[in-house]
Specification:
408 residues, mainly alpha, two-stranded antiparallel sheet, 14 helices, 7 strands, 4% strand, globular, disordered C terminus
């Protein structure tokens, strides 16, 4: 496990944390002056072609490797996790480099710090130009800056992260219902994507732990409540409210559980324990096969996506459930290493039922697996420290007993 992780870490460091993305097809200069670029269907078809084609055409079409803010946030949290149990100077150097690069890449013109992807992105619902901020990217990035602040005490990191709450509150749209509301994905849409909204809730709750802004908790509570009320009786959640969002997948389920748990952790509001327990049961029973294969959807196996095993570890860590599920975690990790890691250290994107896509995407594959690994080793080290402390206390008690006996 350690050698697999180190090979991945060295790969990412050698790439200087730059790379391609499944959705970066529109970054090709060949499309910039093509009149078809103004047609929604052409943009969507182009992105889907690059995402699903098994061979990498990006070099041929002059798509450069780049910094992806969300990927940098995942890397930053990873190095923070590593530094917590092994205070190596090179880890601290990476923490400061990544944090400063993230701050440098923020999108201007909004109520607070915010970030988007480094490519134009056409979804089935909306079109976002390069850099258009989203709640998903902003939440992961701001969370990582808080992680960096906790280690370095650099006030710029915390100040930037906390300001992103104003982006969430002031710039995102809201879809209200009788239970609360759902945050939009970006300032330009009115979608109701459950995991995205919860990432905003999670951010507000953690920000409260630093500045005690009660309004953050009030808003977070309303947004969590609305998502929880959309949980099915079996513990699952659909991706979103729209008819075209009626699927249940692995890593977005993991996001939801993690976010609700983090909200409870920082707010001390334990109203949703039953929802977490029911959701976790569904997650663990429906997304992983006996041999460790990580499924994408609850009802079918393929595509097997590298994002899914990484999120399993992060979710269980946030819920403090790794130890009681360590057999599953290590089985899934070993399966992923055996079937999806290249000899150069990188991880492949997807395995389909009749072919594989072995393109080494920096955000989707490498950053996520480094993120997952870092929580695995952080948890393992924490347990080692705990066991060492217990053994030390037992030894001290035995010595005291022996000394007391000799006195008697």
């Amino acid at each position: 496990m350690s050698s697999s992780f180190n090979n991945l870490r060295l790969y990412c460091e050698n790439e200087k944390f730059k790379g391609w993305d499944p959705y970066d097809g529109l970054n090709s200069p060949f499309f910039k002056f093509n009149p078809l670029i103004f047609i929604r269907f052409f943009r969507l078809a182009t992105i889907q072609f690059f995402k699903k084609f098994p061979y990498n055409l990006r070099t041929l079409l002059l798509i450069n490797k780049g910094y992806n803010p969300k990927g940098l946030g995942l890397f930053l949290t990873s190095y923070c996790n590593l530094y917590k149990f092994e205070k190596r100077p090179e880890y601290l150097e990476k923490i400061n480099f990544l944090a400063k690069k993230i701050i440098e890449l923020q999108t201007q013109g909004y109520a607070g710090a915010c970030w988007g992807y480094n490519f134009d992105w056409q979804s089935r619902v909306f079109f976002l130009k390069k850099g258009t901020p989203t709640i998903v990217v902003t939440s992961f990035v701001s969370y990582s800056l808080m992680d960096a602040y906790d280690i370095t005490k650099n006030e710029d990191y915390l100040k930037t992260a906390l300001s992103s709450c104003e982006f969430v509150i002031q710039n995102l749209n809201r879809t209200t219902d009788e239970n609360g509301f759902i945050f939009s994905y970006s300032p330009l849409d009115n979608t109701s994507v459950f995991n995205a909204s919860l990432l905003g809730s999670r951010l507000l709750a953690r920000a409260y732990s630093y500045n005690k802004n009660e309004n953050y908790l009030k808003i977070a509570k309303q947004s969590v409540n609305s998502v929880v009320k959309n949980q099915k009786d079996d513990g699952s959640w659909l991706f979103g409210k729209a008819s075209m969002q009626n699927w249940v997948d692995s890593f977005h389920t993991g996001y939801k559980l993690e976010c609700i748990s983090e909200y409870q952790k920082y707010s001390r509001d334990l109203s949703y324990n039953n929802n977490i327990d029911l959701g976790l049961k569904y997650y663990l029973e429906n997304f992983f096969l006996e041999d460790g294969t990580p499924k994408y959807y609850d009802k079918k196996v393929y595509p097997i996506d590298i994002h899914c095993p990484a999120q399993l570890i992060a979710t269980l860590h946030r819920l403090s459930k790794i130890e009681e599920n360590i057999f599953l975690v290590e089985k899934v990790l070993n399966w992923t290493i055996d079937n999806m890691q290249d000899k150069n250290g990188c991880f492949y994107y997807q395995i389909k039922n009749n072919h594989s896509i072995k393109i080494p995407y920096i955000r989707w594959g490498q950053a996520w697996m480094m993120y997952g690994f870092s929580f695995y080793f952080l948890n393992k080290h924490s347990d080692s420290n705990f066991n060492a402390d217990v053994n030390k206390n037992i030894s001290n008690e035995l010595v005291d007993c022996i000394e007391l006996k000799s006195i008697i």
